[in-house]
Amino acid sequence: RFLNEAAPPGNMLWLLSFSLIAVALFHLLEGRRLIIAGLSLLLLHTFLNLLAFSLLGLMVHLVAPTLCLLVLFVYKGLSGYLKENGEKRRVRAAFSLYLNPGLVDQVIRHPELLRLGGEKKEVTVFFSDIEGFTALSEGLDPGDLVTLLNRYLTAVTDIILEEQGMLDKYEGDAVMAVFGAPLELANHAERACRAAVRIQERLALMAEAGECPRLRTRIGLNSGTVVAGNMGSSQRF
């Protein structure tokens, strides 16, 4: 029996059909199901090719569809990797605004922390404000006030993050932070105390250097059991 190569239109039609099925699978399925479906499609393609070869002596292109499937697998893997890395970068950028970079990495490794709800934890909460801030603000130009606040809050926040605290909020000149949430911190009380002392020292140095007026910053710390977690809606925590 003589072997006959399938006509080019037949080969192209086979390749196009195989490619369309493969692309549909790659769009509809993910993970293990995609791998199983891809291998099943490859086995079916090989079986039909061998069947045509055995019964009809017909040679249909085997390599091109296989390469097509391989290219799709590589594309899917790379796009998934790049998408995941992009999401991690966005999460890191967002959380770096109020968490120490080391804690951000832990949050990325444990995304289950980013859920609505809370759990009981032992933490230390940090509160601070500037004595006489209202009178001070009334005597300053709004632009100068913004510059002063930015400089002051930067100094306070930098130390809180260095001591692995979580910045919770600003309210004008007031700062609230938490030590021991969202991730456990065994020495949360010690770190909060150290942050308070360091902040007073930093502000004194800034005043001596003329970077800001001499400010009396009041700091309160409270350790205890809290329900720590995310409150709000499913769209915004």
In short:
It is built from 7 helices and 6 strands; from the N terminus they run E-H-H-E-H-H-E-H-H-E-E-H-E. The protein is α+β, with helices and mostly antiparallel strands and about 240 residues long. About 15% of the residues are buried.
Descriptive report:
The protein has helices spanning 8-28, 31-56, 63-95, 101-109, 133-138, 142-162, 188-208; strands at 4-5, 58-59, 117-130, 166-171, 174-179, 217-230. The N and C termini lie far apart (73 Å). It is of the alpha+beta class. It has a 4-stranded antiparallel beta sheet, covered by helices on one side. The model has no long low-confidence stretch (mean pLDDT 83).
Set out the fold topology.
Layout: E1 4-5, H1 8-28, H2 31-56, E2 58-59, H3 63-95, H4 101-109, E3 117-130, H5 133-138, H6 142-162, E4 166-171, E5 174-179, H7 188-208, E6 217-230
Parallel strand pairs: 1-2
Antiparallel strand pairs: 3-5, 3-6, 4-5
Helix pairs in contact: 1-2, 1-3, 3-4, 6-7
List keywords for this structure.
237 residues; alpha+beta; 4-stranded antiparallel β-sheet; two-stranded parallel sheet; 7 helices; 58% helix; 19% strand; elongated
